[in-house]
């Protein structure tokens, strides 16, 4: 499920950048992008929680260190790109 949320976040981020460059309203696409970013993080946390309840320590030791780095980069990139889309939209719509 977290993969679907991550893909949706990426799609909405690209839509925000495209709409921002075309001087369109990007409020909803940016909100959806950041919302799906949060849902991705919650789904990932839920997966780790299930592994803890099952006491699957090998899974945790394999996945968590790598995913922490990947998810940190993912969240920072999502925030930066959506902020760039908002700023692009604001600067292009000024008369």
Name the beta content range.
under 5%
Q: How many H/I helical runs? A: 3
Residue-averaged pLDDT: 90
- Give the count of structural domains: 1
Offer a concise description of the structure.
The chain is mostly helical and 95 residues long. Helices cover 88% and strands 0% of the residues.
Layout of secondary structure:
Layout: H1 2-21, H2 27-53, H3 57-93
Describe this structure as you would to a colleague.
There is one protein chain. With 95 residues, the chain is mainly α. The chain has one domain (2-93). Helices cover 88% and strands 0% of the residues. It has 3 helices and no strands. It has helices spanning 2-21, 27-53, 57-93. Helix 1 runs antiparallel to helix 2 (27-53), helix 1 (2-21) packs parallel to helix 3 (57-93) and helix 2 (27-53) runs antiparallel to helix 3 (57-93). It is elongated and about 60 Å long. The mean pLDDT is 90.
Tags for this model:
single chain; 95 residues; mainly alpha; 3 helices; elongated
